[in-house]
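CATEGORY: protein folding

GOAL: derive structure tokens
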Amino acid sequence: MKNSLLKNVVLGVLVAGIMGSSQAHAVNITLNGADPYQGFMNVSELPSNGGGYVFGSGWGVLDLTCTFSGNNLTFTPNTIGDANPFWYVGGGAPGHPGNKIMDANMYCENSSGAIPGTTVNFSGIILSNTLTSAHVVTAFIKDFAPDFSSNVTHSVVLPTSGSFNLNLATINDPARHVQYGFEMIGPCVWATDIAQFGKVVIAPTQAVPTKATSWGRMKSLYR
């Protein structure tokens, strides 16, 4: 995934006391609409077409599609506003199924060296999850090697309601990249059909200050 400086890990960060010079501290993270979330999309063929990987690139958060209302995140199946049969079986139109599997990642990344070597705790509350079996959404923490050649991951499929709480003891190397966020996998959906595929709404586990923020849209390799 794309590398970026994370200026503010999260306004809701709580750092536990260090119990000795050799013991790593913990960083507690929850959702905050003002945090610098990024997007990345991996696109693959449908299983019926062999399931081969097609491409991956950075996308705008709104293009995934993810939106914040205050600090609450709504994540829906991906929609592509391109009627080309590359994206939809028979071309884009109401009722036409997606022709690609979209692996949408919405995440924050620490590349400042501040998080590696800590235990990262990432939590949130699922206000609702009405996704059908066509799409699966997970919360994750990923600890990537400096060249992104490998990673250590802790992830969990989000339930229909309740909460999630992940923790990962990251490797003590300031050159590593630690990411936390959400991933949705499933076929792209024509915009007028999106409601029938459901959505997930996630809130922070504790109140955090709300700051005004805006998210740019970025078109990426639409064919």
